[in-house]
Design brief:
The protein is an all-alpha fold. Helix content is about 75%, strand content about 0%. It contains 6 helices and no strands. The longest helix is centred in the middle third of the chain and has 43 residues, at about 45-85. The chain is elongated, with a radius of gyration of 18 Å. The N and C termini lie far apart (about 35 Å).
């Protein structure tokens, strides 16, 4: 039950994260008319903050404090979403409105990711650890894929679209 609960928590968190990532890219490119390059640069501080905080919290969290850090991270992540809802409008205010929310969101994500991993793997016996890590990693959003979908949806893809290109060669015969 503990592993199933941690997997469900991961699924819910990564679904919320994917929605936030897509919404950010679409907002920057459609709401503020940023180019794809400008949106990518504007978006970068959030994931950078998440990577730094995840490294620190994973290293210093330990098994005992991981649940507390993860819960705090979830709250911080939710607060960043509320910040975006309250502060962003159609007038570009990157430094005062977008950047603080992106950094706060990155802190929340950086606290949650190591906690979810520790909770899931901490419930398993060592002999099951390797076979269970793969499904957990499959729950994580694929950022390049999400960014590409956002580009295509916004009509601002930096890559030329080729209708003859097989995106999924394994599915070509289906």
């Amino acid at each position: 039950p503990a592993f199933a609960l941690s997997a469900l928590s991961s699924l819910l968190f990564f679904a919320a994260l994917a929605v936030l990532l897509l919404a950010n890219v679409l907002f920057l490119s459609n709401g503020w008319d940023y180019s794809v390059l400008e949106a990518g640069v504007a978006f970068f501080p959030g994931p950078l903050t998440a990577a730094i905080v995840a490294g620190l919290s994973g290293r210093h969290g330990g098994r005992k404090s991981s649940p507390r850090l993860g819960a705090a991270g979830g709250i911080v992540f939710a607060l960043s979403s509320l910040w975006f809802l309250a502060r962003l409008d159609d007038q570009p205010q990157y430094l005062s409105a977008y950047l603080p929310g992106a950094i706060v969101g990155g802190i929340g994500v950086g606290l949650v990711l190591p906690a979810l991993t520790a909770l899931a793997t901490g419930t398993l016996p060592p002999e099951r650890l390797a076979t269970t890590a793969h499904p957990l990693l499959a729950l994580r959003p694929r950022l390049p894929r999400a960014a590409n979908h956002a580009d295509v949806l916004s009509g601002r893809s930096a890559l030329p679209v080729r209708p003859d290109l097989q995106l999924h060669p394994r599915r070509a015969g289906a």
